[in-house]
Amino acid sequence: MKKMFGWLPKAAVVAALFSLVFPAFAADKATKEECIGKCEAAAQLMETKGAAEAFKAINDKGGEFVWKDSYVFCLDLEKQCNAAHPISPALIGRNLMMAKDVNGKMFFAEFISVAVNQGEGWVSYMWPKPGDQGPSPKITYVKKVPNQPYAMCAGIYE
Predict the structure, then answer these.
(1) Both ends of the chain: CA-CA distance in Å?
(2) Share of the chain above pLDDT 90, in %
(3) Could you tell me the pTM of the whole model?
(4) How far apart are CA 78 and CA 87, in angstroms?
(5) d(CA 82, CA 158)
(6) In the structure, how many helices (H) and strands (E) does the chain have?
(7) In terms of C-beta density within 10 A (0-12 exposed, 13-18 middle, 19 or more buried), how is residue 61 classed?
(8) 25 φ, ψ to 5°?
(9) Which residues are within 8 A (CB) of 127 and not within 5 positions of it... i.e. 6 or more apart?
(10) Which contiguous run of DSSP H or E holds residue 72?
(11) Digit-coded pLDDT (tens) for 56-97
(12) What distance in Å separates the CA atoms of residue 157 and residue 86, rounded to the nearest whole number?
């Protein structure tokens, strides 16, 4: 092993081998199932504790709605803006209905449309990964909160 990997630090070799043997531990990318589950949990929190408590939990960068490489954000369907966003709080209250990806897709308007017309679903669009300059394919799950003018959203890069 020393001859084969002598140029790498020992910790890097161990980590690489561990990830080959136990791939689930190496995966720190969110899954579609996790996005659905986190959105459902956020919607349930809003239904039981109210909007203020849900916003507080969603906006907490160290909370349960920020995990791996994803997070839940909340849309106000009536005001057509972000109601809560843990990563970019500057987006809260901003109307993004005219926002387009590099292909001209009005993805924020589609988030609202899916929530209002279908109740839940996936929206695909192009968006830069954190730290990247260029856009990458991304899909976001949208779930309308029953009896509320809000939708919970969480996405992953494909």
Answers:
(1) 34
(2) 78
(3) 0.82
(4) 22
(5) 23
(6) 6, 6
(7) exposed
(8) -75, -25
(9) 101, 107, 135, 136, 138, 155, 157
(10) strand 70-76
(11) 999 999 999 999 999 999 999 999 999 999 999 999 999 999
(12) 18
